[in-house]
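Retro notes - structure team

What went well: the batch runner handled both jobs without manual restarts.
What didn't: labels got mixed up in the shared folder, which is why I'm recording both outputs here explicitly, each with its sequence directly above its tokens.

Job 1
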Amino acid sequence: MLDINEIMKIIPQRPPILMIDKVEELIPGESCIAYKNVCINESYFAGHFPGNPIMPGVLIIESLAQTGAVAILSKEENKGKNALFGGVDKLRFKKQVLPGDVLKLEVKIIKQKGPIGVGEAIATVNGKVAVKGELTFAIV
């Protein structure tokens, strides 16, 4: 298990855009399981949407991307580098994510050639799929 301080040693994101709170399982270069506690005091809930707060889909995708970045940047040869978005494919939103939810974020690296790779990404709440798709990344 990695705490927030250990996560920040691997990926460059910092609050307020750091979107994962802890890592439960990590296999460097292969997979990562992380969690995001979705709190009502997140600034985006003020406008998305007043009276009906829903976590923006792009921030769920960012949470998944950061989880994948922990997996790929924890490999020895990638330490100190950054992982950037190269694309999003086959992505589907299945469930709204609300304040109070604990978002489980799972990313498995399914292919990589040089600095470019693809991760299979799934975000769930209480075992129900919220978002599923593939994220392409570039290591720089």
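Job 2
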Amino acid sequence: MAPPAPARRELLLRHRFESLAQVREHLHVQDGRSLFYFRAASLVAAGGDRVLMEISTPEQQMLLRGSVVSRDMTGLWLEFPDGRLARRLVDGGLAQRRQRRVPMDLLVEIKACGSRVGRILDVSMGGARLGGVQGIATGEEVELRLLSALPEVPMSIGRAEVMRTTASEAAVRFVRSDPPTRVAATRLLDAAQRAWARSVEQPHAPGCCGKNGILFEPPMPRLGSSRGSVL
């Protein structure tokens, strides 16, 4: 089976809110998907570009993967799927994490009983989330090796234990008692943080969602057939 296509560049965006209520006001469901307006007049982007966005309140965080629908003179309309996102906002808000997850999109070779290719979707001090993988089991130990070189990061990330799996994803915990793994995992996280530090960040606009209920947004666009994904 052919390996996944090489990772494409993504826009890295952050939007900070003061409360979960403000987040709900700015996520608009249309045709089973969510639209979000990101105000950034100088941001260079086009329809179809991939987006990785962190939405946060003072206590909580959610990472979203989607795409640019359209842009105007003041910003971008972004598209995300609605199902899991809508349920999270209604049932309990954004994800509360013991360790901060840093988004990535890197090809990785996963060695256990055999070898397979997947992607590192995000990384933390303790572990990582892998996408596009099947055939590995909870409790299994795997070896991770990058297929894309990063400055100052060893190609061999080292040993990790599979903590849980879904149909196509796996959460792994680095074996940090192994010195080479501890060094490589730390450098991988540092590389992700350096990339994320160059993201475009916006706070919630003062006066928006106020007592008059007005949102500082242009009219919503019509959606095409593309879909994003929730992390």
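One thing worth noting from job 2: The radius of gyration is 19 Å.
We'll revisit the folder naming next retro.
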